[in-house]
Amino acid sequence: MYQLLSGLSLIEVSSFVASPTAGLYCAQMGAEVIRVDQIGGGLDYDRYQLTTEGRSLSWENLNRAKKSVALDMRTAKGRELVQELAAKTGQLITNVPEKSFLNHAALKAAREDIITARIMGWGDGRQAMDFTVNAASGYPLMTGPAEWDADTAPPVNQLLPAWDFICGAYTAFALLAALRHRDMTGEGSELRIPLGDVAIGTVANSGAMAEMLYRGSDRERLGNAIWGAFGRDFMSRDGKRFMVAALTSKQWAGLVEAFDIAPQVAAIEAAHNVEFAQSDHNRFTHRDELFAVFQGVADTLDYDVMAERLARAGTTFERYRTMHEAANDRVLVDDNPLFGQSPKNPSGFRYPAPGPFANMPQRERGAPHSAPYLGADSEEILAERLGLGTGAIGKLIDEGVVATSDADTLGTRS
Amino acid sequence: MYQLLSGLSLIEVSSFVASPTAGLYCAQMGAEVIRVDQIGGGLDYDRYQLTTEGRSLSWENLNRAKKSVALDMRTAKGRELVQELAAKTGQLITNVPEKSFLNHAALKAAREDIITARIMGWGDGRQAMDFTVNAASGYPLMTGPAEWDADTAPPVNQLLPAWDFICGAYTAFALLAALRHRDMTGEGSELRIPLGDVAIGTVANSGAMAEMLYRGSDRERLGNAIWGAFGRDFMSRDGKRFMVAALTSKQWAGLVEAFDIAPQVAAIEAAHNVEFAQSDHNRFTHRDELFAVFQGVADTLDYDVMAERLARAGTTFERYRTMHEAANDRVLVDDNPLFGQSPKNPSGFRYPAPGPFANMPQRERGAPHSAPYLGADSEEILAERLGLGTGAIGKLIDEGVVATSDADTLGTRS
Fold first, then answer.
1. ipTM score of the complex?
2. A–B interface: beta-carbon pairs under 8 A
């Protein structure tokens, strides 16, 4: 953890992926992120993968370095405590609907300059999730093998909940932008970030929407080939699959060298009266002939030989790994300073845990933190943030409004 | 555009997707983002889709609301001007390698408290792109139809450059975190954000890495079914494909109502002695039997009827659209306040353009801005930021170190 956000406290009332991610990034940069959950866990507390004891490996990775307060938000008192916490800290990340006790106006009444960052489904209020905004985006019907018939090909969902992760990072950015504005002007902000707008807005930002409108039709299905440049997956003699890509003249020259195909490439250039060295466009247009030449060489070489040649020529390539392989990869994980051995996960399972994506050579990264047990910080936060005494907190616990650490109970809801 | 970042200026020396996205998000929040490019355009200036005149629809969407300075960075004077601009503004977003004239130490020598945010390939310095880190992540070998044989199934690349977009948003976040730290302490920061770490770190943050290590093997291929919960694509009688998902008890109840399948669901519950209302786990475990019941109903209904029932029951669902359909969708685009008619794109092509993803009900969103012509702001920025006079700038133009707007030339490089 770096301490760039040291001194910043925020409340997170959150579930699933996007909203917890926004809090995670802030926590990994040194902010005090206080996640408030329903006693026994919110909607995401038992998301797969579960350990045999019922602890969610999803939850314990999306909530590292945070503090946890557990309240019964079905009671008026519990809801009041969350509102007070948000007002005291001054900033809230949430995916709870605007039509709830955490609506911006209610919080603003308690603190004029509050900042709320609220992740929504669609901008018009309809529910949405990563899976459903993805269906609307157009990507699933462009994904999959090039040889599939365009009229009957099924949609292929991306497995990465990409919209959630983009939305989470953007929300952390927008929150800091609003903080900067408040530092300058004293004004609070209400930010609403619809997951659906992140999706369709990204289609537009990438240029793909303009492309569809300009062409007046969909893009042809390309399988794993890169749109508008040279790149695809190939298979080595020993059956290893790898991706190569060339977006620059230098990268292209490296590929021609590594595959040792200068004469074949020259022959294709001559046949079509084009040159490939300087032109993404030409390399893309004649990709099928080029792909055949590349695969022809790959057919004759084992991957280790191929990889050595690709690395020596300074190309951009990567072997496809299964995720289990990736998780056990020395270079990707064990020797990567992004990861440290995580301390005391709630699950009791030990495995490498990541710190912040940003690497700051002049600062100490420190070890990654674990997620809290649910409610582990309830007493501390209520005392420090709201000034409640031991007696008052004890009473709230006795009444069932507040719960303390669930370390000795299973993570599943009753 | 909102003005949360009003008063902030930054230099962007950038290409492709991740790095321009970081600048885009800042520009859409009111920062002055000065993109500096090689005269004639950098490596990404002619990325697909190109118009018939050679203007890139990718470039003009990833660079909205920015200013453009065109310099010959192959000359010492051109490089010096970029270094001076970075030192004057105090912050730089780039994906230029650390081993270049834009290395942090050189810039810090010119300005002690400078902040640089540098997007890299892999953390250890090897080249990488979205396509190659994706191959390493494990996702492509989990993607595609469930019925594919695990031993021979090809990788399926996601078409969305998701790692680039996550990395871009994260970089914008990290830059603002460093700005906040400088505001508090006066200290600058060097941030390096490896695209590869964004990918493998996200695999870890999602819990999927812990899942692989806990299970000791890969996850089974699920096609479009949601991992650990209920959801999949179905097809209506009239051949429309749609995604439905239920992650909560309420959403599940809505689906059972919309599909009118309470008796069939009860029969499956009785046969296995389980209940579905409260358990993602049970709904996932028995998904195949449930999917058959759902598809059986979908077989009998046209999509419009199905959608009306799904909406009335408050479920989360979405029809798959092609991207061309999405781009022409009234609800997604034309009636969506995220979009405005874009003014004067460099391509001359007019189409809806998005503003910032965040919606701020209390502030004026304003119309989206267009991207600049390359070099359109060279003279203004050199005069205002570096205090150069008309004569000095004219001399730099005559020498070919500086270029002005390419409005009257094609966007392609010579």
1. 0.98
2. 519
